């Protein structure tokens, strides 16, 4: 098995699959054709892996070499291809289109952006659980379910005659945003470490988004409360209000000493825990989920009888 350039994509893909591909001794068409035909002597099979430029002149040179020899080997030309990373996404788009098209799935055809919201939230939570479980096969499955939600919403939107968009619009917007927000990769901006990258990111976002009237504008109200509290703390700290936040929380968690629980604000107490976790570099939501998983694995014995009271 020979190729002109063993570092090109197709020979590398073969090498990754355990197939040895050697570099050809010649690159010019005529000597290369003679070499390939010589190698095919004694009924040996020779495979030439085509180059990206389609090897100009090689086909004619092979035809001339075969015509010149009386006992030339049989030559078969196969057009090969390989799947580049992401090519199966096209299959996923095609399947989604089939499900929503006439003759597809009746349930899928009835869904709207609003009806799909619970599934989007559920699949995101299940993906997080898969990440934290460490089960790689489970993670592959759950990420697929998250991807399905993206494809589903894009397909639904494509049917909107007034304000439609499709999966290509979604992908194009994402690509533009990633390129725009990574000038240290796609431009000439210098960002030697993660802190510099984050600072650049925030500066770029500030120019893209309309000016906020309040530092907490834009935080989704539907976020889980613990995650939202962490986001609020992060946003206020970045805006320079971290000390003020800690003062407010401390004021609302102080007691008068006589009755320690009388003046304690449970919400402020929870926020204090969030601030403590962030100071330790811990995601409070992840920490609580870890505890809940541990409790679920504990042996608490059998269920006890209990009486329901009004």
UniProtKB/TrEMBL annotation:
InterPro entries: MazG-like_dom, NTP-PPase_MazG-like_N, NTP_PyrPHydrolase_MazG
A Pfam family annotated for this UniProt entry: MazG
CDD domains, per database record: NTP-PPase_MazG_Nterm
Entry keyword set: Hydrolase
SUPFAM superfamilies in the cross-refs: all-alpha NTP pyrophosphatases
Residue ranges of domain NTP pyrophosphohydrolase MazG-like in the record: 111-186
A single GO BP: dATP catabolic process
GO MF: nucleoside triphosphate diphosphatase activity
UniProt xrefs under NCBIfam families: mazG
PANTHER family in the record: NUCLEOSIDE TRIPHOSPHATE PYROPHOSPHOHYDROLASE
Protein name (Swiss-Prot/TrEMBL): XTP/dITP diphosphohydrolase
Natural source organism: Ornithinicoccus hortensis
Taxonomic lineage of the native organism: Bacteria, Bacillati, Actinomycetota, Actinomycetes, Micrococcales
């Amino acid at each position: 098995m020979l190729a002109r350039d063993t570092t090109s994509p197709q020979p590398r893909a073969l090498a990754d699959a355990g197939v040895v591909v050697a570099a050809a001794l010649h690159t010019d068409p005529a000597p290369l054709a003679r070499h390939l035909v010589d190698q095919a002597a004694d009924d040996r099979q020779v495979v030439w892996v085509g180059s990206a430029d389609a090897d100009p002149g090689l086909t004619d040179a092979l035809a001339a070499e075969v015509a010149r020899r009386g006992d030339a080997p049989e030559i078969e030309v196969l057009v090969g291809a390989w799947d580049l990373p992401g090519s199966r996404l096209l299959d996923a788009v095609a399947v989604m289109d089939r499900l929503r098209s006439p003759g597809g799935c009746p349930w899928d055809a009835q869904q709207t952006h609003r009806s799909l919201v619970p599934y989007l939230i559920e699949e995101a939570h299940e993906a997080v659980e898969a990440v934290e479980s460490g089960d790689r096969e489970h993670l592959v499955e759950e990420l697929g379910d998250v991807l399905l939600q993206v494809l589903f919403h894009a397909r639904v939107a494509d049917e909107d005659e007034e304000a439609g968009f499709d999966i290509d619009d979604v992908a194009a917007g994402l690509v533009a945003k990633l390129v725009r927000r990574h000038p240290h990769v796609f431009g000439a901006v210098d960002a030697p470490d993660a802190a510099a990258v984050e600072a650049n990111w925030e500066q770029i976002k500030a120019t893209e988004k309309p000016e906020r009237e309040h530092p907490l504008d834009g935080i989704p109200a539907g976020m889980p409360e613990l995650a939202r509290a962490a986001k609020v703390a992060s946003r206020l700290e970045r805006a320079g209000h971290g000390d003020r936040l800690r003062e407010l929380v401390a004021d609302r968690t102080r007691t008068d000493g006589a009755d320690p629980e009388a003046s304690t604000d449970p919400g402020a107490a929870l926020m204090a825990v969030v601030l403590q976790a962030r100071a330790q570099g811990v995601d409070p939501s992840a920490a609580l989920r870890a505890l809940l998983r541990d409790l679920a694995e504990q042996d608490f014995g059998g269920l006890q009888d209990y009486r329901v009271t009004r």
